[in-house]
Amino acid sequence: MLINLVLTILLLSPIGNMYYPDAHFYNVGQKADQAAPERINPENIGVKVTAKRFVAIDEASGKLLLQKDSNLRQPIASITKLMTSLVILDQAPDWQQLALLQQSDETVGAYPHIYRGEQVRFIDLWKSALVTSDNNSIMAMIRELGFSRGDFVALMNEKAQELEMFNTTFGDPTGLDENNISTALDVARLIHFAMQRNEIRESVLQGKYEFSILNNKKNRRILNTDILVDSFLNKKKYGYELLGGKTGFLPEAGYCLVAKISKDNRPVIIVVLDSAGMGERFQDVKAIADWVYSNYRW
């Protein structure tokens, strides 16, 4: 009896547990009167994943369905680009504006897809940044908009406060800075708002993008870094639909992935932070999605 009581207390503890029995995620629900899903298998206490921190949230009601250490802060790597994209959209960019890649745009990290001296349209920079997580394209867009890195980061942190991401701070626009810190809960809030923008949603779901380098007539083809786009979680025959997502990796962050997934028109936001490897982060999201839709009834 005592052992069962201790286990029950641990499982219902709001810090570091696997499941919130009755909690709502701030008030991001799309409908205030939307009924929250109910547990149908209370004996199934959780799911085995490699991620050190994760959360799954029913987007319509805002109910937390499954979580582990979702309020602990850590670097979030290229998931940062979702916030960067929101701030860029706030500037109402000219998508047809011409841009010439400069040395000052060059970063370390992800493989670049547009090189110094090449001229493209602003939309090509945008797609390179979101389809394939190109860091140089992020920096070129910021420069073309007339911002210094520091001024743009200040706007990102203001936006985080506006979106009530109170456990989040940013140090750079690409995600390369380990001082881009957030929690699984705040990242879930970020994708909730980011996927409301068509420009972001359509880009992160795009499997590939082709464009021309304007000053040398070369053609360029880029592929999405998120393999969920072509997985069973985005196949109608399995009942799933991927509604958005973003990958991220830094040694300090581990392998991270955020995804918005729907089954039977029931969208769920899933965030995994610090998974064991590149493949494991995708398997972690798949395992959490399967657990949620198998253990809840809407």
Topology:
Layout (H helix, E strand, L loop, with lengths): L1 H11 L25 E2 L13 E6 L5 E5 L5 E2 L4 H11 L7 E3 L18 E3 H10 L3 H10 L4 H14 L18 E2 L1 H11 L3 H7 L3 E5 L6 E5 L16 E11 L3 E10 L2 E10 L2 H18 E2 L1
Antiparallel strand pairs: 1-13, 2-3, 2-12, 4-7, 5-6, 8-9, 10-11, 11-12
Detailed description of the structure:
It is globular and about 60 Å long. 31% of the residues lie in helices and 22% in strands. The protein has helices at residues 2-12, 80-90, 122-131, 135-144, 149-162, 184-194, 198-204, 278-295, and strands at 38-39, 53-58, 64-68, 74-75, 98-100, 119-121, 181-182, 208-212, 219-223, 240-250, 254-263, 266-275, 296-297. It has eight helices and 13 strands. The model is unreliable at 1-22 (pLDDT under 50). With 298 residues, the protein is α+β, with helices and mostly antiparallel strands. It has a five-stranded antiparallel β-sheet with strand order 3-2-12-11-10, with helices on both faces. It has a two-stranded antiparallel ribbon with strand order 1-13. A two-stranded antiparallel ribbon has the order 4-7. The chain folds into two domains: 18-73 and 227-297, no CATH class; 75-223, DD-peptidase/beta-lactamase superfamily (Beta-lactamase, 3-Layer(aba) Sandwich).
How far is the N terminus from the C terminus? 33 Å
Overall structural domain count: 2
Beta-strand percent range: 15-25%
Structural class: alpha+beta
For the record, the CATH architecture of the largest domain stands as 3-Layer(aba) Sandwich
Averaged pLDDT: 88
The 3D shape can be described as globular
Across the major sheet, the strand order is 3-2-12-11-10
* Residue runs with pLDDT of under 50 for 5 or more positions: 1-22
Number of strands: 13
* Radius of gyration, taken over Cα atoms and rounded to an integer in Å: 20 Å
* Sheet with the most strands, sense and barrel status: 5 strands, antiparallel
* CATH class placement of the largest domain: Alpha Beta
User: CATH superfamily name of the largest domain?
Assistant: DD-peptidase/beta-lactamase superfamily
Which percent range fits the helix content?
A: 25-40%
CATH fold type of the largest domain: Beta-lactamase
How many distinct helices? Answer: 8
Helix and strand element order: HEEEEHEEHHHEHHEEEEEHE
